Amino acid sequence: MKHRTLSRVLAPALSTALLISGAAFAAEGSDFEWPRLLVIGTAGTSSASFASTNGWTPILQKQTGTVVRAVPEDNESMRYRRLTDRRDIAISSVSAAEMRFQIEGIGGYATTKPVPQRVLWHHNDTPWGYVVAGDSELKSLQDLKKGGYRVAKGMFSPPMIAAVTGALPAFIGLSEEEAEKTIKYVPASSYAENCRSVVEGKADVAYCAPVSSVLSEMEGAPGGIRWLPLNQDNQEGWDGYLQHRPMLIPTKIELGVSTARGVDGATSNFVYSVPADTDEDFAYHMAKWFHESYDAYKGSHPMAARMSLEQFRAYLDRTPLPIHEGTVKYLREIGAWTEQDDAWNEAAKTKMDQWVKARQAAMEEAAKAGVKADFQNQAFLDILDKHTQGLEGFRSRL
């Protein structure tokens, strides 16, 4: 039986230093050998992403013998680099919205190495909304148009920036230019800092997920917190909002802190992603484990309960992101994959490859022309726009 190492799973670029501890263990009734060490990258320690991943990783370790580590990396760009370039994490918990920014090279991702990714499994359907302090004079998002209010701006994540500088103004009927004059944006260097800003008096509004542990902490703070709804009956507002955050889905919040439940917000699906060249056998057995061990880990965290095959299957009906071949192989085996799925998945892979190829060409042209690859360098952005012009962007298949 051929010995499988983590470097085979992650790709040759991974440092062999990661392989010095542990030993490979064979899955019961299978020739597959799990990697000696399996590193899962998540958002920071205050996130539901980190907490729920920590719920199932000890169970995987106990059942397979592989050493599993959930590593918090709050900087989204850095976590992307660790997954696709440094290759010192094998799997990343990432929002579908963030993956769109990564693939299309939006904002700070414009100069990152373009690497095709694949969805390994569905992580959760995270609700998001706009939170204020309990004693805030703001009663609706429309009140922001009065001017003078501070909105937290999560500099660690391009989609978080887009949510407050593009989507939010569009929802209330302001252009981005008008918003810059009307709203004061307060930079935040981490997710926890972004959310806490409203109870610490640093900002009036923050874009947060009510399932995060930091929101429970904030709900218990003096004065508590409230949520300003993204009213679902505001069709014009939502049309504008989705222009900036096309991977989101309007929803009524049902998960998370009690103050958010019943409030109109948005759902952002989180997935476990891997580079497209991740070993097919590894992806197959991870998908198999996620499904067959669901009953063992579903009670470890509320978000872990969203990792069922049923939730994944529902997500497959609307995701524009390609699924890894190992996962497809397993889903096909158990009758959870159709010919229709083959069609849209192949189209999704083609679209992603087109974006990667175009961005690579842009970087090569910039290098030859001596143009600095910087997302704040307009000369570089012009080259990038030239190569990506006409490409269809990723958008939820609603």
UniProtKB/TrEMBL annotation:
Give the InterPro entries listed for this entry.
TRAP_TAXI
Segment forming the signal sequence: 1-26
Presence of keyword Phosphoprotein: no
User: What's in the keyword line of the UniProt record?
Assistant: Signal
User: What is the protein named?
Assistant: TRAP-type transport system periplasmic component-like protein
Organism field: Alloalcanivorax balearicus MACL04
